[in-house]
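User: Sequence recovery, please. Input:
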């Protein structure tokens, strides 16, 4: 069986892909940053790895846009953690991001496998 290597180079992710992954993950309920990163990793079959240097700036950007909201909570281990949730605006944006993603996938598929005209 072929073992897949994790996709660790953050510069290789398409612009906006991380936003979509975060919004998608938060649609299942509020989570703290580490849990978001773990969910992305698990849901991608350990292919996508989001490091903290990419995750937290993205979370702050999405919060500034009003797509997610954050609040401080105390975990079951009595540690202070910041929990993020999807806002109503974020839910609408998730639909937009899904649409953009599928258009991009279709365009890439066409570009990688163009139909050649018969001579």
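Assistant: Recovered sequence (119 residues):
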């Amino acid at each position: 069986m072929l073992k897949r290597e994790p996709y660790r180079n953050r510069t290789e992710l398409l612009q906006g892909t991380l936003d979509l992954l975060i919004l998608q993950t938060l649609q299942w309920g509020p989570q703290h940053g580490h849990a978001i990163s773990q969910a992305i990793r698990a849901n991608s079959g350990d292919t996508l790895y989001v490091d903290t240097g990419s995750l937290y700036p993205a979370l702050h950007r999405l919060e500034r846009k009003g797509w997610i909201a954050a609040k401080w909570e105390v975990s079951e281990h009595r540690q202070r953690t910041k929990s993020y949730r999807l806002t109503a605006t974020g839910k609408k944006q998730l639909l937009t991001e899904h649409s953009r993603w599928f258009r991009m996938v279709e365009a890439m598929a066409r570009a990688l496998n163009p139909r050649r005209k018969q001579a």
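The chain has one domain: 15-112.
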